[in-house]
Automatic annotation (TrEMBL):
InterPro entries: NA-bd_OB-fold, Primosome_PriB/ssb, ssDNA-bd. Keywords: DNA-binding. GO terms for molecular function: DNA binding. PROSITE patterns: SSB. This is Single-stranded DNA-binding protein. It comes from Flavobacterium zubiriense. Pfam families: SSB.
Length: 125
């Protein structure tokens, strides 16, 4: 399955009791449709994601980044400490394609723009 969405928080690296590292992050996917009355309905779906291949990817997975993910979805249900029933979707990610849009992407873009302006000012003509 493929999904495309924005990270809702910076990725975190966690170590399991078997000393394996996993990158955890959350992605929001926005969708909209018109109901029978013609009203536009906005809908957001959240996925808790895990990536087991390399922890280094956590450095570039920052809040707001647009990512395209490949992997498989599982659903889970649990009862909270308050006795309320909860449910969530987990996305076991096997491939990540970063499309930008996060804090680090904005920083890199600003740095490139500054360097370009300096070069243009130094031209003799």
């Amino acid at each position: 399955m493929n999904i495309t969405g924005r990270l809702t928080r910076d990725a975190e690296v966690r170590t399991t009791s078997q000393q394996k590292q996993v990158v955890n992050f959350s992605v929001a996917i926005n969708d909209s449709y018109r109901n029978k009355q013609g009203e536009r309905i906005e809908q957001t779906t959240y996925f808790d994601c895990s990536y087991w291949i390399t922890p280094n990817v956590a450095k570039i997975l920052t809040k707001g980044s647009l990512v395209e993910l490949s992997g498989r979805v599982t659903a889970r249900a649990w009862t909270g400490n308050d006795g309320e029933a909860h449910a969530g979707l987990n996305f076991h990610t096997s491939q990540i394609k970063l499309h930008g849009g996060g804090k680090k992407s904005e920083t890199v873009q600003a740095t490139v723009e500054t360097a370009t302006k300096k070069t243009e000012d130094d031209l003799p003509f």
